[in-house]
Amino acid sequence: MKRLCVFAGSSAGNDPLFIERTKALGEMLGKKDIELVYGGAKSGLMGVIADQVLESGGKVTGIMPSRLFEKEIVHQGITEMIEVKSMHERKAKMSELSDGFIALPGGFGTFEELFETVSWAQIGIHTKPLGLYNIAEYYTPLVQLIEHAIKAGFAPKDNRRLFIDKDDPAALLKEMESRT
C-alpha cells in the first residue's frame, strides 16, 4: 500500500487515548512511507494524524471542498491540498487516490464516509481494504450493530469481511496489507 485514506473526527474526543493512538498510527504511516490522504483540516484527530505523518517523514494529501475552506481550519503545512467543489467529489477523489481506508474515531461525517465506503465495497465499486481503528473500543458498538444486522437477515454474512477491526495499528496495517 502506497496511500491510505483516513477518515477522522474534526474533534479530538474526550479520551486522551484517541490522540495517543492516532499519533501511533501516524508515526507508522510516515515510517513505512505510506502517504496519508485525508480531509485536509488541521483540527481534531484529522490534524493529529496529518501532523504525525509529517513529523515522521511522510507525505500528506488533503482534499477539501471549497465551501469548507471558510468553516474548517485548513492545514497549511501538508504536502498537497486538493480543492474540490463538493463532498461527493471529495470522497470520490479520496477513493481514487487511495489503496485502502482506515476509520479513526469521529462523528457523523466519519460515519458517513465509512458507510459509503463499505457500501461501495458491497456493490463492487472497489475492493480496497477498510480498517476500523478501534481505539478504546470506540467502534465495538458499531461492529455489534453490523453483526446484529447480519443475524437479523438484513446484511449477508459475507459482508462482515468488508472491514477489519483492530485496536493495534501494526496489526491493522498488517491485515490490510494482506488483503491488497
Automatic annotation (TrEMBL):
Root EC class: hydrolase
Enzyme Commission code: 3.2.2.n1
Gene Ontology terms for molecular function: hydrolase activity, hydrolyzing N-glycosyl compounds
Gene Ontology CC terms: cytosol
Cross-referenced Pfam families: Lysine_decarbox
PANTHER family, sorted: LOG FAMILY PROTEIN YJL055W
Family listed: Belongs to the LOG family.
The name this protein goes by in its record: Cytokinin riboside 5'-monophosphate phosphoribohydrolase
Organism of derivation: Halobacillus karajensis
